Amino acid sequence: MSLSRRTAARSVRMLGVTAASAALALSASGTALACDITEFSAAAACDGTKGVITVTDKDATHVPAVVTVFLENNGADLRQVGKEQTVTGSKKGVAVSFAEDWEPNAEYRVHVVAVKGKKTLVEADITPNVTTPSKACAADDTSIPTTTPPSTPSSTPSSSSSQTAAPPAGTATPSPSPSDSSGDTAAPPAPASNAPSPAAQESNLAETGANSNTGLIVGIAAVLVVVGGGAVFFGMRRRGASHR
Fold it and tell me: pTM of the full predicted structure?
């Protein structure tokens, strides 16, 4: 075989190997750029006081995907959450949310269908299923009253409190009694005492000059003085006579 034929044969082989390598590279790159279920994720979260199921699509090929969420019960679909939504992903990720008042530790199945042209690229569930947190979203409790500190009372009484409230129309106003006009409350009478007061005695003496028993007492005293004096006189006379 001549040199030219050998060179031509080698060139053909090299072209074949290069073409095969290029085909494999294109196939691998096409597979890498195709939409895949691994590019979807889901999670349960809270949007303020409301629960939501959020699905994120990070498909860089921008293939539209239809997402449907189901509430699970013992491995079976209990009900569908809202309506299915279409999302077109991006490399950074595009999210769609499903409003759901989920309960703690609930389980949800997320199903994704992505079709490009007439070819179905994805028709699968996001694994594992979404499990909600063990604590529900905080409720918006507005029923707690706001306590207001009491206002500091004024040291000066208001004019309205110092005045007597006017009686209603048609009501006769009672006239003040004599005791009320004095403005003072009558003192209770003092308890009666059996002993005469000094003022009463002075008044009796001033009127009569003496008590009603004073004359009798003075007369008896005078008689006793006279009798005693007589007894002393007669006793002295007898004593003198005996000495003689």
Answer: 0.47
